[in-house]
Amino acid sequence: MKRNLNIFLLSVFVAFASCSFTTKTFDDPNKDRLLMQLITYLLEQGHFQPKDFNDALSKDVYKRFLNRVDPFKHYFYKSDLQKFKEFELELDNQIQNYEVQFFDLVHDRLVQRIQESKAIYTDVLEAPFNYDIDETFQSDPEKLEFVNSKKEMVDRWRKQLKLGTLSNYHDLISEQSAKAEDADFIPKTKGELEAEARASTLKNLKETDVYFDDLRRDDWLAIYINSIAESFDPHTYYFAPQDKDRFDASMSGKYEGIGARLQKKMDEISITELISGGSAWRQNKLQVGDVILKVRQEDENEAVSVVGMRLDDAVKLIKGPKGSKVILTLKRVDGSIEDLMIPRDEIELEETYAKSSIVKKDNRQFGVINLPKFYISFEDVNSRNATTDVKREIQRLKNQGMDGLVLDLRNNGGGSLKTVVDIGGLFIQQGPIVQVRSTGSDREVLRDRDQSVEWEGPLVILVNEFSASASEILAAAMQDYKRAIIIGSQQTYGKGTVQNIIDLNRMVHNNTNGDIGAFKFTTQKYYRINGGSTQLEGVKSDVVVPNRYTYLDMGEKDQDNPLPWDEIQAASYTLWDSSIDYELMIERSRDRMQKSPQMKLIDENAKWIKKVQSKDLYSLSYKDYSSELEQNETESKRFDVLSDYESNLSFESLPCELPIMEKDSVFKKNRERWHETLKKDVYMEEALNVLSDLTMNSLGNGLSALKD
Fold first, then answer.
1. pLDDT value of position 6
2. Alpha-carbon distance 302 to 299, whole Å?
3. CB 406 within 8 A of CB 438
4. Residue 103 contacts by C-beta under 8 Å, 6 or more apart in sequence?
5. How far from 42 is each of 242, 247, 512, 523, CA to CA, in Å?
6. pLDDT of residue 290
7. Is 5 a domain residue?
8. Residue 447, strand partner residues
9. Average pLDDT over residues 201-208
10. Percentage of the chain modeled with pLDDT above 70
11. Which of 124, 357, 514, 570 could cross-link 531 (Cys pair, CB 3.0–4.6 Å)?
């Protein structure tokens, strides 16, 4: 769903209560009112494009909130909506008065309806479904109305549950058919398989209920607040305390704890992964599958049971400052109970950080740097960041005799604006990288002032639809300077706005409400050095290559209320001084792509995916469902060859990583998996083809040959 695309990280400035406009005093003892007061103040005084709190905004917030809490219309009745409707044009007044009567009404009714739904789906799943009936299920909520009666609600649930069970039922029949030739295999009846399919559906629903049961009123209030925030633009967002912690960890690439990922199923919290390099991984006593029963701090006598506890609350107990220790009471996979003391440490999420590889092609050495995000720690300026890591990787690649560089920004959702300016400076002598404008202020040109160039050789940048924000700034700057050739999707994500994060706690005097979270809101727009915005339009690739997402709605332009595109005055900049004929290189690459059978098949696959994704009406007849599924599987088989593709390239780790790989099996496995992925990556292969052309052209001995 479009609203879920806000998982892509944004270019962020961090600021606290020192912002010039935060001069008001906030001290309301009521937490709800305090939060509403803070949010409305920041929206009115700080947002790049503030809106009037009027009936239009009220209707927007009303619709957003109901869509977020009941998107598939299987909780509320029309009678509920009639009651809610009384507030449709009143929310602007409630918001300005810091009142939450509408939220309370919806929340209380929602909790009631969720509990009712448990009884509904339990009753529905008690009896077998009739798969001979010719009926359909509509999956597009926009085409559904709220129901009038419990009978209609039961029928809506029945159809949805029937579709899920139908899928399970078909899988079980297929599995049984595959085992039919086994002499020892005892087949089950269709009735037994159908009962098993329903049991699986029920189990999945109960696991989902664990999530709903864990939600407190504060969690639902955060959803309401974000319905207000997102009515201003898609990237304005309230962070509840636990969400702010996750955001900080994602931006810095590290956190303090034991280095384990947890999952809650039913009432049990279990270990799903040990993070390589973390204290639990180094200790080598905690195991995947272990269930955590109790948690005790090293200076406490009593342990706290986490059975049935919210996952977020359990995580808070387990996490802690570097150097401290925590004691976990574990139920091991073999059923034994054991206490385990684990030291806490600073955990680095290696998948967040830049990594590099070397590859040989046409008797030359090329480097590849993958940058997942533009990370930085806002609390420790001396800690690891994307700029220093990319610079280090470039130096390492140069030591290996690198002739050209591919910078992979695919799926990079952004990060620190300062970091992207600094990284841009690694590839040019000096000059502007991006322009930034605030409401009512003149543009500010952010520039690289360091005349040194870390890499002045051939450069190719890979992007896709999920390259957003800071990724777009870097790609746009290198394109405007004619410093790099951009290869990828028709355009990047198209996010051209800058957000500011304020710790709400620092705005409150004598706060007695505990941690109240943080607020991220759009305060600026950024522009290319040529004056154009990347908002909505993104960065157009020099060489467009199809991928599986080509025809899907994925970008900023597909959000329901993005800020508009505009342009400002161009900055003064000088094109990269190069003898390379970039237009010729681009032309040659485009020609290869047009002639590539692999690319043609990828494009056909993308069209087929669009067709499948657009389907919203499903048959609930087993015969029709099976027939359609078989047809889809037959059609999809012609695309299986795409996964079989493999280049003749060989990617290797740099010598500095070899000692690490000998000691760290997880690190080694991750690197090997990455190299194997690169070997099968047709886009990376073309990027290296372009580098080869660029290298020949830059040497001055290949231009005539390339033109022939």
1. 33
2. 9
3. no
4. 65, 220, 221, 224
5. 21, 20, 21, 10
6. 87
7. no
8. 432
9. 86
10. 91
11. 570
173: pLDDT strictly greater than 60 = yes
Alpha-carbon gap, residue 638 to 601, rounded angstroms: 9
Q: Which domain holds residue 682?
A: 351-494+532-707
In the structure encoding, which two tokens stand for residue 61, read together? 């917030």
Cα-Cα-Cα-Cα dihedral sign, residues 492, 394, 11, 414? positive
CB atoms within 10 A of CB 458: 26
* Beta pairing, strands 268-274 & 260-265: antiparallel
The angle subtended at Cα 104 by Cα 30 and Cα 17, nearest 5°, is 40
- 191 burial (CB, 10 Å; 0-12 / 13-18 / 19+) is exposed
Q: Final residue of a domain: which of 348, 369, 386?
A: 348
Encode pLDDT of 346-369 as tens digits.
776 667 789 999 999 988 999 999
Q: How many structural domains comprise the chain?
A: 3
Query: Could you report the per-residue pLDDT of 57-92, keeping only the tens digit for each?
Result: 999 999 999 999 999 999 999 999 999 999 999 999
Does residue 202 fall inside a structural domain? yes
User: Nearest-CA neighbor of 671 among 370, 467, 382, 405?
Assistant: 370
- Which of 624, 622, 632 lies closest to 166 in space, CA to CA? 622
The C-alpha atoms of residue 609 and residue 428 are separated, in whole angstroms, by 40
Residue 513 lies in a domain: no
Give the integer Cα–Cα distance in Å for 171 and 177: 10
Residues 303 and 382 reside in one and the same domain? no
CA-based torsion, 628, 630, 632, 634: positive or negative: negative
Name the token pair of 519: 């607020």
Q: Work out the burial of residue 249: count CB atoms within 10 Å of its CB; fewer than 13 is exposed, 13-18 middle, 19 or more buried.
A: middle
Give the end of a domain, one of 283, 316, 348. Answer: 348
Predicted pLDDT of residue 211: 79
For residue 501, being part of any structural domain is answered with no
Q: Which of 433, 426, 428 is nearest to 11 (CA)?
A: 433
- The whole-number pLDDT of residue 287 equals 85
Among candidate residues 333, 205, 334, the one with its CA nearest the CA of residue 266: 205
> Across the beta sheet with 651-652, what order do the strands follow?
543-544, 485-488, 459-463, 404-408, 364-370, 355-361, 651-652
| 274 pLDDT more than 70 | yes
CATH code of the domain in which 285 resides: 2.30.42.10
Mark whether 336 and 358 lie in a shared domain.
Answer: no
CATH number for the domain that contains residue 555:
3.90.226.10
| Domain co-membership, 270 together with 175 | no
Cα separation of 281 and 667, whole Å? 12
Kindly provide the b/e burial profile for residues 97-112, where b requires at least 16 CB atoms within 10 angstroms of the residue's own CB.
Answer: ebbbebbeebbebbee
SS3 634: helix
Beta strands in 241-363 (DSSP E): 254-257, 260-265, 268-274, 291-297, 304-305, 325-331, 337-343, 345-348, 355-361
Pairing of strands 325-331, 337-343: antiparallel
Comparing 462 with 375, the larger pLDDT belongs to 462
Does residue 209 sit in the same domain as residue 307?
no
**Do residue 61 and residue 168 come from a single domain?**
yes
What integer pLDDT is reported at residue 276 of this predicted model?
66
pLDDT, position 261 = 83
Euclidean distance between CA atoms 95 and 223, whole angstroms:
14
Q: Three-state SS string across 338-402, please?
A: EEEEEECEEEECHHHCCEEEEEEECCEEEEEEECCCECCCCCCCCCCCHHHHHHHHHHHHHHCCC
Structure token pair of residue 266: 């039913």
Same domain, 265 and 413: no
At residue 697 the predicted structure's pLDDT band, cuts being 50, 70 and 90, is confident
Here the tokens at position 147 are 């129901």
Grade residue 209 by pLDDT with cuts at 50, 70 and 90: confident
The overall pTM is greater than 0.85: no
Q: In this structure, how many other beta carbons lie within 10 angstroms of the beta carbon of residue 536?
A: 20
Query: In terms of domains, do 420 and 322 share one?
Result: no
